[in-house]
Specification:
Chain lengths: ~350, ~220
């Protein structure tokens, strides 16, 4: 269990103060994976440096299973760090050490007995699926294998928390999934508390049980995946269930209202659209859609256009009464609303203006 | 060929000159690495933002000690250090005395090379070592030095080659060795054979050092 409370980090640049973290709070229970997503400059790297005590937070607390990390004295900082295993984007292995040597590194630091180290190294390499690669140097391993060694090394000090900083950002898609599955498997088996910092939504979708969106040093949205995904207005839902910028089908459409509909759980299984069509006796046109399984639940995100004679409020009411989030996305003729969807260089608005 | 073997200077003085040169290079290489390596590590870790920042001390050591020593031409430094050699080894003549000024001349040079080698160790490796709970000494001994070892060997090789050149200069002011032989006989007595033989020997020596250094560096490099 890791709890971060109101973490602030202010850097001084000459006379100017730069607020890198502005009151970040998180809580991740044991045995679960929490994703922290954000663009570059959002404060992800600073957060990592504060959690690993490479930088001291200006204020706030980092607490692992009841032990306060942010206020430990300098003499205890190394023992505190050993409670966090860290996986880096580029593995950061020592080129002069073999795979076994790299995994042994954290144990050598506390002068563990040689036979214990050897046994543990063998066990860890087996755990990450690298049996038989003991004597390989990092240069002889693939990117995915290097990251596996990095994970084994991170686990060598028996940490409570595994902190992964962009663990798959340097890997190809297939290897990314292998590494993510490994992290998920280890989390379950070793009852780890895992924090994954990433800029890839794919990572969050695949393994995270909960997620926080970091922006300008603040957590602006946070919660279990299924929960944030069901909120049609949240930025995370839009990123988790992205709709392509829709190129309206020119000429084929009447200028009807456009709805955004988000199904989740059981709602995703019902034939809602045909239900609407039949109930109101109107035509529907699906402009864009995306379907995902998130946190074990089915989600669907659709952008639908109704015929211009449809009573949109009645349709919205009908959908909501069936537990489906829906909202008006603006009608096709509505230039301002459409700016969000239509690429700026299309002359779409002008054309629909003519057809009115 | 016959001239080489029949040349009395070569037959008599050459073996001694070779030994003296090897002595000078060997002794000063030993002390250069012994003192230059820690000095280079110190210069690297004490920079602002380094492992153990000590900006003021770093400035003093870097600017005053290293840069000033390096800016004095070696020929002048050597002559200026004759009293120090006398103080340390009791004489200002011979290869051992020459090794004092040779070492002092090359220590700052080697320290700068070491500093550059350590700077090339990727910062992520230092971060990784710190996050796994290394002390500063452990970061130096288990990450910085082993990770830059191939580069350090290459730097030491360059330094030893430089020492061979300096040792020839040291020969002129009482150090002995091949430099003295070439100067006394080849230059002052116009004995071309002696000149050519010493040059060839020095070239062979430098080649041997360079090739050995490169071979060791390569066999240590696992990147």
């Amino acid at each position: 269990m890791i709890t971060v409370t109101d973490l602030r980090k202010v850097y001084r640049q000459g006379k100017k103060e730069v607020v890198a973290l502005d009151g970040v709070s998180l809580s991740v229970p044991k045995g679960s994976i929490h994703g922290i997503i954000g663009h570059s400059g959002a404060g992800k790297s600073t957060l990592v440096r504060c959690l690993t005590l490479l930088d001291r937070p200006t204020s706030g607390s980092v607490n692992i299973d009841g032990t306060e990390l942010s206020s430990v004295r300098d003499s205890e900082i190394r023992a505190a760090r050993r409670r966090i295993g860290m996986v880096f984007q580029h593995a950061n292995l020592m080129d002069s050490r073999t795979a076994a040597g790299n995994v042994a590194h954290p144990m050598e630091l506390v002068k563990a007995p040689k036979d214990k180290i050897r046994a543990k190294v063998a066990e860890l390499l087996k755990l990450v699926g690298l049996e038989g690669f003991e004597n390989a140097y990092p240069s002889q391993l693939s990117g995915g294998q290097r990251q596996r060694v990095g994970i084994a090394r991170a686990l060598a000090s028996d940490p409570d928390v595994l902190l992964c900083d962009e663990p798959t950002s340097a890997l190809d898609p297939a290897t990314t999934d292998e590494i993510l599955d490994l992290i998920q498997d280890l989390t379950r088996r070793l009852q780890l508390t895992v924090l994954i910092i990433t800029h890839e939504m794919h990572v969050v979708k695949r393994v995270c049980g909960s997620v926080s969106l970091l922006s300008k040093g603040r957590v602006i949205e946070s919660g279990p995946l299924a929960e944030v995904a069901s909120d049609l207005d949240s930025k995370l839902a839009r990123a988790l269930l992205p709709l392509p910028a829709s190129e309206p089908i020119k000429g084929a459409l009447q200028a009807g209202p456009v709805l955004e509909i988000l199904f989740s759980g059981d709602g995703a299984k019902e034939p809602v659209l045909t239900g609407v069509a039949r109930h109101f006796d109107i035509d529907l046109n699906v402009l864009a859609g995306s379907v995902e399984t998130l946190g074990g639940q089915q989600f669907g995100h659709l952008r639908v256009q109704l015929g211009d004679d449809a009573d949109r409020d009645a349709v919205l009411g009908y959908l909501r009464s069936r537990g489906i989030s829906a909202k008006l996305a603006g009608s096709v003729a509505d230039e301002a609303e459409l700016a969000e969807f239509a690429p700026a260089d299309t002359d779409f608005a002008a054309e629909t203006g003519d057809s009115k | 060929m016959n001239e080489i073997f029949s040349n009395p200077v070569l037959a008599k003085a050459l073996p001694e000159a070779i030994v003296e040169t090897l002595q000078m290079v060997g002794i000063s290489a030993f002390f250069t690495v012994l003192i230059g390596l820690p000095l280079g590590v110190f210069l690297h870790v004490t920079v602002p933002g380094g492992l153990r920042p000590m900006p003021v001390v770093n400035r003093i050591v870097s600017d005053i000690v290293v840069n000033i020593t390096r800016s004095i031409p070696f020929a002048i430094l050597m002559v200026a250090l004759i009293p120090l050699a006398r103080l340390l080894v009791g004489t200002s003549l011979g290869p051992v005395a020459a090794s004092v000024s040779l070492s002092i001349g090359t220590i700052p040079f080697f320290a700068r090379l070491v500093e550059a080698c350590l700077r090339d160790v990727h910062h992520g490796k230092i971060d990784a070592a710190q996050v796994m709970g290394s002390t500063r000494m452990q970061v130096i001994s288990k990450v910085m030095l082993p990770e830059s070892l191939p580069a350090l060997v290459a730097a030491a090789t360059t330094t030893v080659v430089t020492l061979v050149g300096y040792s020839a200069m040291a020969g002129l002011v009482g150090g002995g060795g091949l430099g003295k032989l070439a100067y006394n006989y080849g230059f002052q007595r116009f004995d071309v054979t002696v000149m050519i033989v010493t040059i060839v020997l020095i070239i062979v020596l430098v080649q041997l050092i360079q090739l050995t250094g490169e071979w060791i560096s390569r066999s240590l490099d696992h990147r």
